[in-house]
Each structure stands twice: as structure tokens, then as C-alpha cells.
Amino acid sequence: MTSRLITNIGELVTCDPSVGDGSALGILRDAAIVIDGGVVAWVGPAAAAPATDEVTDLEGRCVVPGFVDSHTHLVFAGERSAEFAARMAGEPYTGGGIATTVAATRAASTGQLRAAAAKRLAEMTASGTTTVEAKSGYGLTVADEVRLLELSRESTAETTFLGAHVVPQEYLRDRGAYVDLVAGEMLAACAPHARWIDVFCDQGAFDAEETRHILRAGIAAGLEPRLHGNQLAHGSGALVAAEFGAASVDHCNHLMDTDVAALACAGVVATLLPAADFCTRTPYPDARRLLDAGVTVALATDCNPGTSYVTSMPLVIALAVRELGLTPAEALWAATAGGAAALRRSDIGTLAVGSGADLAVLDAPSYVHLAYRPGAPLVVQTWQDGTRLSPPRGVR
Ligand code: NIG
Ligand code: FE
């Protein structure tokens, strides 16, 4: 196995508070990292680095842990730019457009879906994402949900069964039958391909009782719960997430103090999706309120064709700093270690000895530039498990 030294790192963010400046970001200057067997084998001052087989000199650039995008709808067909334009002209977002994507996704060939997902994943990788969660939810038949999860599994182990995204048109007159399908035959077919179960528990989607029924069945089938909640209205998502000990409740635009307290008490991560708020022109949640209450906050793209056709975690970080009230340090932590917490992963989101060697190289002197220079393509290299994925070797 070849060992590699990545050296001459001007600023290294480890998200390991036991090293460097002692902050949550664990920052070292003039640093180096040794990668061996796909994991971080050594972290320290460049001047003290051990000898390795190969060396990469970053000429003073900044290194951060690879971004953990813990909420995406990666596999779908079609696009909804007309809906976006209508929204920007004053139409509200209701979730009604999901049916458009369901129809396009059902009609697409597996090859078309695979190619479309690969293109999005390549954008994510180029912008520094090294772990992605991917949900089903645009199939909503047994065969189509299985197909979406099988395709998702080609890219990630973090696959989520979201048969309970909305009630599809053919079941609108009998939603009980659809809930039973999701919790029964569809779950049984999908569980072998998924780690997580998710429900869109919100106004116009699924209510608390339906959500509980589906989560109970999912847990019995060996899946771990996470929820979409409190996006469109103040509903029960956060409280049900706390009740079930879900890993995360995502969106969190409409929270009461009792919701915030329940999340803190149950240790449920609040995953905020500011790109969805940006693209739906929705008021942003208050991240400070969550942090002050002791809730762990994560950031993710929510990449989907309706509310957030966004693949860039640097954009999400910039929005979180400008609009959610996070400092640049808190936002970077939420996009790396926070995402790892939302996925209950201790092997990613940090650059500590033993962590996966997943990292992004920024053409900037400091991670603060992620928020300070929104829109600039600062990520110049992405490494996953010690292998450089982006840009491909020889390109630069
Ligand atoms: O996370 N809120 C539910 N699902 C997606 C949007 C889906 C769509 O509009 O296609 C979300 O925002
Ligand atoms: Fe979502």
C-alpha cells in the first residue's frame, strides 16, 4: 500500500478539537497529512512530517474535510424550471410539483436515470462533497422505488427509502391504502437496498399518525429513521423525530420552543437546507436558536428538482453564514462533522488519525473564503478515501 504525504497546507481544518488551535474546527497552520490505506495516518506540522512513498505539495492552500451532504434526492428525471419561474413571480411552494417529477422519473429508462444522477454527483464531487445521502421518493410504486434505491446504491451506502414522499395521484382517493403499501409491500422490497427510512411529515404530505405507522414498520424492517419536517408549516415532524430517536429532522423552518427542546433532549440533529429556502423564497430558520438550545446542526443541499436544484455545499455554507446566523466556523462544522452526525458516522467529516481520507483543497488561504467568496470555484481538488477524484489526474 502506497503512503502519501499531503504537505505545505497553509491552513488545515481537521474538525478534531484535540489538535491545533483547540477550537471545534481543530485548525493547524503550515500543516501536513499522511494518508495510508485510504485513511488518515498522521496529522501535524509540515516540518515534522514522516517520510512517505509519494508527496503532494499544496503550496499553501487550505484543506478542509470533504463535505458530507446528508440530504439529497439524487436520482430523478426531468426538471422544473417553469415551476421555479412561476414561484419567483409569486406562486407559493406547496409540494404539488413532486407529481411532475414522479411522472418523468417513472417514464425514464434506468440508463437515463443513472446518467442524470452521475452528472449531479460529478458536480457534487467537483465542489468538495465526498459523502452523499440519496433518497428514493420520485418512483412511488414498488418497482420504481426499488429502482431508485438500486441506482442510489451504485453511488453511496447512505440510501434512504422515501416511499412516503407524497401520496401519488393514483391513490389520492384512498391514501390509507397508499400508507399501507409503503409500510408493507413497498418497504419489504426496498429495505434490502436502504439504510434509512424517511417520511415527508408536513402539511399536504403525511400527518403524525401516518408517519408513526410508517416509521414503526421501517424500524421493524431494520431501517433507521430520519424525517423531513416542519418545512411548510408548524407540524409534528420534529416531535415525532424526537419520539422515535431519529438521526435527524430536516428543514426545520417552523419550530416552536417545545420542538427545539425535544430535539435537544432526544439528541436529534437538525439538518438545515438553506438552498431550499433560497430557491423557494421562504423565510430561513434561525440556526442560532437551535445551537443555543444545544441542538446539533447540520447543513445539506437537499438537491432535488423542485425546491433546491443545488449541488454545491460551498453555496450552502455561504447561505448559512449570511442567512441562518452561523459563523463561518459553525457553518463549515455543520457541513462536515455535522453531516456526519446526521448520518451517525464517526469515520467521516473529520481529518483525525483513523478517519477516512476525504478532503477538499481550497484555492484560498482560509476556509472563511467559502462564505466570504460565494460563487467562486474555490474547491480545486477533492480526495475520497485517499484517492484524488477531482479534477481527474492530468487535467491540472
Ligand atoms: O426536501 N419537501 C419535500 N421534498 C423535497 C422537495 C421535493 C420536490 O418539490 O420535488 C424537499 O424540499
Ligand atoms: Fe428533501
Describe this structure in words.
It is a single chain. The mean pLDDT is 97. The protein is an alpha/beta fold and 396 residues long. It is built from 14 helices and 17 strands. Helix content is 34%, strand content 22%. It folds into two domains: 3-66 and 350-390, Urease, subunit C, domain 1, CATH 2.30.40; 68-342, Metal-dependent hydrolases (TIM Barrel). It binds N-(iminomethyl)-L-glutamic acid and fe (iii) ion. N-(iminomethyl)-L-glutamic acid binds next to helix 2.
Task: Note the main attributes of this structure.
single chain, 396 residues, alpha/beta, Urease, subunit C, domain 1, TIM Barrel, 8-stranded mixed β-sheet, 7-stranded parallel β-sheet, 14 helices, globular, binds N-(iminomethyl)-L-glutamic acid, binds fe (iii) ion
Radius of gyration: 21 Å
Oligomer: single chain
Individual helix count = 14
Q: What CATH architecture of the largest domain would you give?
A: Alpha-Beta Barrel
Query: For the report, how would you describe the main beta sheet?
Result: 8 strands, mixed
What's the CATH H-level homologous superfamily of the largest domain? Metal-dependent hydrolases
Sequence stretches where pLDDT stays below 50 over 5 or more residues:
none
Beta percentage is 15-25%
The number of domains is 2
- What are the distinct ligands in this entry? N-(iminomethyl)-L-glutamic acid, fe (iii) ion
At CATH level 3, the topology of the largest domain is TIM Barrel
Question: Any idea what the shape is?
Answer: globular
Overall pLDDT: 97
Fraction of residues in H or I helices = 25-40%
Total DSSP E strands:
17
Reading off the top of the CATH hierarchy, the class of the largest domain is best stated as: Alpha Beta
